[in-house]
Amino acid sequence: MKKKNFAPDMPINLAIAEDNCFSRQAAIERMSKFSQIKIKHIAANGQELVSMLQKDSNIDLVLMDIEMPVMNGIEATIEVKKHWNHIKILMLTMFDDEKNLFDAILAGASGYLLKESNAEQIFRAIMDAMTGGAAMSPAIALKALNLIKNPQSESKESQDFGLSEREIELLNQLKNGLTYEQIASNLFISYHTVRKHIENIYRKLQVNNKVEAIQKASSNKLID
Amino acid sequence: MKKKNFAPDMPINLAIAEDNCFSRQAAIERMSKFSQIKIKHIAANGQELVSMLQKDSNIDLVLMDIEMPVMNGIEATIEVKKHWNHIKILMLTMFDDEKNLFDAILAGASGYLLKESNAEQIFRAIMDAMTGGAAMSPAIALKALNLIKNPQSESKESQDFGLSEREIELLNQLKNGLTYEQIASNLFISYHTVRKHIENIYRKLQVNNKVEAIQKASSNKLID
DNA sequence: TGAAAAATACGAAGAAATGCGTATTGCAAT
DNA sequence: ATTGCAATACGCATTTCTTCGTATTTTTCA
User: Fold this and answer.
1) Which domain holds residue B200?
2) Where residue B116 sits, what CATH number does that domain have?
3) Which residue, B149, B175, B208, sits at the end of a domain?
């Protein structure tokens, strides 16, 4: 694991994603008190956050609400981590729901706080995250311990995206890193047919290349 | 989960189990500062703690060292929880070792702190534990998250193929189905450098395309 | 039986990836 | 000091993939 050189004198570039304008304003005010923190982006949902990051990804940490319209905090975290892995995510939530906690951890969140946390607690959590640690409200930590003790069997419900059996077969060939040519030969169909199948798979999974298709099929347990 | 009626005005009956007499004395002094806390038992190892509890089990919480002779902190926790399930255990340790953390959680610890924690942090952790929560040092929490993300397996021996850290970073980008262009932009290097890195990765892993590289890196736990 | 869906097949054009060569810089070990 | 390696960077040629069409045959199901 890489040692992170976090300079305590550098300001922390913060983004806030929160749909409720009340909470959003409250968060802004509470964080403004800290001179080390510079609020750079304020988004009303995950989509907006991603758009802002596309224009300026020089952000250290995001305070992310879980419940948001359009794109929720979990989805947004996945998206952010995919493109900007250096950005830390602190989840803020009203409820200590075990399902959300698990998904947030899988998505790559560096901490998980209840919204009732006060400014100092949030600030400390931010510092913890920036120095390579993680922070959790005690109630959350308890759930986390439960998750370790009783591992999730089936976490998120997996979709099948309406893929046919033949298409799953194609995906299993893709997974092995074969070219269209090789797959065609393996399945005794033409190169063109392989391409058409894969085109259909991409449309159904809403992806644009082999790797994404495999990852998505895999995480939905369509292939192993 | 049962709601615990913890009265804030009642003193907390504390036990301390720690073999090193230096650390033990330090712990005693640090906890004595808090009027809410009453130190009732002081043990030099797990065995001693259990003996004391057999005579007087009116204890709310134990500050437990992990490394102890005769009976270590994990074994002691199992024993304590078996006989006096109401007693909370706060683990204190020098190292953020993942294996010990896992065992401690399974044994039923309510929190896990590094010994470097100061008196206030320990006190807060005690209060968290008493009010039904859990407390973890940030460094510990990070390990806990890892445990949830990557459940204990330890199966087949994995090679590292002599990949550099930078190359692992590249692999993690590849995994997300990004193009060379996008990766270059994410890592602030040129498109050409991305290609060269990937070429080197392919050579080291002895593969010829993205999918094979990801599969091989993944099965050797170089990425997750 | 008729309609819809799935599987098959082909081509053009552009995007992306791959292989091979070369080269500079900086850092670490001998 | 020199050697070696990692990280950076560029160009060319070729292969592979992806998107967009269109089209026929087979299977499924209402």
Assistant:
1) 165-219
2) 3.40.50.2300
3) B149
Helix/strand/coil percentages in chain B, nearest 5: 50, 15, 35
Question: Within a domain: residue A156?
Answer: no
Distance CA A133, CA B40 (A): 33
Interface of A with B (CB under 8 A): 2, 82-85, 102, 105-106, 110-111, 128-129, 131-139, 141-142, 144-145, 147-149, 151, 174-177, 179, 207-212, 214-215
Task: Tell me which residues of chain B have a pLDDT lower than 70.
Answer: 1-9, 152-158
Q: Are residues B190 and B128 in the same domain?
A: no
- Strand pairing partners for B37? B12
B209–A177 C-beta distance less than 8 A: yes
Model confidence over B76-100: pLDDT tens digits? 999 898 888 899 999 998 877 778 8
Do residues A118 and A214 share a domain?
no
CA distance A133 to A3: 11
Q: Is the pLDDT of residue A178 over 50?
A: yes
E strands within chain A? 12-17, 37-43, 61-65, 88-93, 111-114, 135-136
Task: Classify residue A1: in a domain, yes or no.
Answer: no
Residue recorded with tokens 């002094």: B29
| Through-space separation of residue A159 CA and nucleotide C15 C1' in angstroms | 30
